[in-house]
Amino acid sequence: MKKPLVYSLVLLAVGLLVTPRAGQKPVVSFGVIADVQYRDGDPAGTRFYRDSAAKLEEAVARLNAARPDFAIQLGDLIDGRFASYDTILPIYDRLVMPRYHVLGNHDWSVEPEKLLEVLGRLGLDRLGDGRGYYEFRRAGWRFVVLNGNDLSVLAHPAGTPAFVASERLVEDLRKAGAANAERWNGGLGPAQLAWLERTLVAAEKSREHVIVFCHFPVFPPGATTLWNDREVIEILEAHPAVVAYFCGHKHEGDYALKGGIHYVNVRGMVEGKETAYALVEILADSLRITGFGREQARTLAVRRDLFAQSASGPFYCPGDRKVYIDQADVTAGLNAAAAIGDDRIQRMSRGRVSPESFTRGSSAQRVEWFKRGLSSGNIDACDTFGGSR
Length: 389
Prior knowledge:
10 helices, six-stranded mixed sheet, alpha/beta, 389 residues, 2 domains, elongated, Purple Acid Phosphatase, chain A, domain 2, 18% strand
């Protein structure tokens, strides 16, 4: 018996191989908008700043008709002058469902004396600990909003400790030749990283799936990612609860799958004459993304719930993401392993057993290989005949 067959057996037994099914009703749905970047200014290159007001009005009307559970804008609601909020926020506030904000780098492109008023203008001083990162829940899902401007040379007044530390960090990245060593990027500070870890642990204890929102990408690598993108990815991939990471900032949009996590970069609304935004529906086994305007439609598979902890211990699935399986999963896997042993199949088909012709292993051998792989968390322990030594 070959290892891929054993591996497939284990994956099927614990429910990791998922095929999206048609006709499902969404568990949760939400509208998502990125990089509106409104200002009362003429176009610059491909960015049509003034047109963003009309684009947002159209998006609000369509989302109000669709009635998702909530809406979220992924940052850069404005691009210049604090007074720009007075025009664009009332449009966003016409949404009839709960609505949320993510902080972007351009949200801080205001007069220096107005920097400290940005959080309050967006109502983010009343969420979480008032530092721009927070969480909320819907129907067994936890939504985590990050503040990628925790470390920033734009969000903090010049000369403050936070500004100096951020300036030093971006300079160190530049010396190291990092592609994302740009002043218009940002990062998560130590307190926020610790909060993210605690939040994901709490979600797993509550058996909740997680979607993360941030203005800045973390993957794929490039010029637009968070300064400490690898550190954030390491935290996300350590928690099987995390299903997807939605972001903006990179106006052309992007998508990648890494470590079992979908990284979805929504296209910027400010770009071009055509709009861009999406409606996301969370189904039992997938995320269905309906794109409007330039935004792409996608259907992304979601793993079934595997967070129950038991004496079964850790098992590593594709992407080396640690998940936990319960006793029912183990029993199903053991039964499946035994059911297609060569001895059982030969006895049923010919009435006799010929061990010298085994290609898959006996039922007892297959069960033993399954147990070794499960207890060690190492697929190499399922080394079929080699593993029987």
